[in-house]
Design goal:
Blueprint: H1 2-12, H2 23-30, H3 35-47, E1 64-66, E2 69-71, E3 75-77, H4 88-92, E4 98-104, E5 117-120, E6 125-128, H5 137-148, E7 158-162, H6 171-182, E8 188-192, H7 207-224, E9 230-234, H8 240-253, E10 257-260, H9 273-276, E11 281-284, H10 288-301, E12 308-311, H11 317-326, E13 328-333, H12 335-340, H13 343-358, H14 364-367, H15 370-373
Parallel strand pairs: 3-4, 3-13, 4-7, 7-8, 8-9, 9-10, 10-12, 12-13
Antiparallel strand pairs: 1-2, 5-6, 6-11
Helix pairs in contact: 5-6, 6-7, 7-8, 8-10, 10-11, 11-13
Length: 374
């Protein structure tokens, strides 16, 4: 089957004509555009099939069984690139082991005023303040349903990132609504309580608020989707005491995993002043150290009992490996894809497998938290 797919790909996909990565040639033209316009153009290109499609078999060493699902490799696409679930297969074909779409909110909302995305090119970083721009749960579910019913589609796990509307009067009800509407189509759901661009959202990471919210979400899961893995995405800016509270609530609530983490409000010194002054969350390389430190803390505070997904600043196989050794069972990237292009996924997987073999790990799972077990 894969041989047939490869032949069809080479006949139909213009990217196959390149014997090298063409993204360094394309990126300068994309970067002449406003970042959000470049993003919109990329989504349109992917809709027309103008993206690479890699059907290589993943290295068996990278196989990652988690949450009762089988991930062919641990590298996933973080929520935020395919915000409206429009091009799931296109991103799957980049070589990801899973794709997470969204954030979706119950009712449609435009998000924050434009411009709302800014590049710090030399630092390979972005600042965004989109504010959960969403087509709403009904239209989003329709997109997911159309994808699920395609005669030929990727079979890799799909995650859906759920949030609340900006002006919601009942936050828990918003998340429950999204859970019910997304559950028929998702392989796992991520509760986003950590975006810095929706007023008051990060307050849900407090112990009392988080306990109350997750209690209602897990009750809804039991009633409507009892086999659905529930993950929670947290911020990298939480203090050590907040991290301990989050770990305690996660352990007591029965959630299945934590994504560590979202974008940061901090501004490292290598972000140019004209970009650093913009409000919003920072992603990319400068986030790596902070997010990895918090990841390691969460692994310790949860005693390794809850799988962690490392997200924030991954741009190489070595970055991915350090996240795994700090406690990540799986990984997600976002900004590296914008600066390095689709070929980065294959490169990161190749480099990661080589590092696991170098250190004589028989599986990726053996390396999880290795730096904290020594």
């Amino acid at each position: 089957m894969k041989n047939c797919l490869r032949k069809a790909y080479h006949k139909a996909n213009p990217w196959a004509l390149f014997g090298f990565d063409p993204y360094p040639l394309i990126r300068p033209f994309l970067f002449l555009l406003n970042p959000e316009l470049a993003h919109e153009m990329t989504i349109k290109m992917l809709k027309f099939g103008l993206g690479p499609q890699f059907f290589d078999d993943d290295d068996p060493l990278l196989r990652t069984p988690l949450f009762g699902l089988d991930f062919p490799n641990p590298i996933g696409l973080a929520a935020g690139l395919d915000k409206q679930a429009q091009v799931i297969d296109a991103f799957m074909h980049f070589g990801f082991g899973h794709v997470e779409v969204g954030t979706v909110t119950p009712l449609p909302q435009p998000g924050n005023p434009k411009p709302r995305m800014f590049r710090a090119t030399d630092a390979k970083a972005l600042i965004n303040r989109f504010g959960f721009n969403s087509i709403g749960a009904d239209a989003f579910a329709e997109n997911l349903g159309n994808w699920r019913h395609k005669p030929r589609r990727s079979q890799y796990p799909l995650g859906v990132n759920i949030g609340r509307n900006k002006d919601s009067k009942d936050e828990a009800a918003d998340y429950v609504t999204c859970l019910i509407k997304m559950a028929p189509y998702a392989d796992f759901l991520t509760v986003n309580i950590s975006s810095p661009n929706t007023p008051g959202l990060r307050e849900l990471q407090g112990r009392k608020s988080m306990t109350r919210l997750l209690g209602k979400i897990m009750d809804a899961r039991k009633a409507h989707a009892p086999n659905m893995p529930i993950l929670v995405k947290i911020a990298p800016d939480v203090t050590d005491d907040q991290q301990k509270d989050i770990a305690a609530v996660a352990l007591s609530s029965g959630v299945h995993g934590l994504i560590v983490g979202n974008t940061t409000l901090s501004r490292p010194s290598n972000i140019p002043r004209d970009v650093a002054k913009e409000e919003g969350g920072l992603s990319g390389g400068p986030l790596f150290s902070l997010s990895t430190r918090v990841l390691g803390n969460m692994y310790r505070f949860t005693e390794g009992k809850i799988p962690l997904i490392g997200c924030g600043g991954i741009g190489s196989g070595e970055d991915a490996y350090l996240k795994i050794r700090a406690g990540a069972s799986m990984l997600q990237i976002y900004t590296a894809l914008i600066f390095e292009g689709p070929w980065a996924v294959r490169r990161i997987k190749r480099e990661l497998a080589a590092l696991l073999r170098r250190d004589r790990f028989a599986s990726l799972a053996e390396a999880v938290g290795a730096d904290l077990k020594a």
